[in-house]
């Protein structure tokens, strides 16, 4: 596969953007459409992942019965998010010759994003599997490991290895996944319920099992938190009786 060598010269065929979106939060779609335009990302194919909304997870009582996961351990919204990411992975596998950038719908994109992304991807080795370009939970590569003009750092998979965090992930607001790793996850137990942890910790567990080749961008190219969580909206998330 020649993807890693050629894709830094972005075009509409080799860069695909996937936006994880909860359809009831219409202001987030407007926010993301505006952000994509402002940073020139709207000239690439943008795929909106709107399947598997929280209401679908709750439908039929499977969540209450624990078939999706223990309701005491994981929220229906978290299961929805896992299913949306897994659905994106299926699209990634179907288009193996492109870079696939996954964004959640509340991100803030930093100026100069595309040139910075190009520099990061050019620095990735051919063995990469995950590349986190977001700031997730304010996690950084430690200052003593950073080097001038270096954009990408190997993180690996171990919890607490070299620096903090729960493993390979840096939250899931902004990352790239290699098609071969997406396929690996989809063929594993990590693609099927029951689920017992949110998507970032789910990826950490998968990464540890597979000894994933995970990389972090430093400085990060994207931050999170354009909106308060929908969990604070009592109409979308009514209290349980």
TrEMBL record:
InterPro entries: Glyco_trans_25 (IPR002654). It comes from the Bacteria. Residues 16-126 form the Glycosyl transferase family domain. Pfam families: Glyco_transf_25. This is Glycosyltransferase family 25 protein.
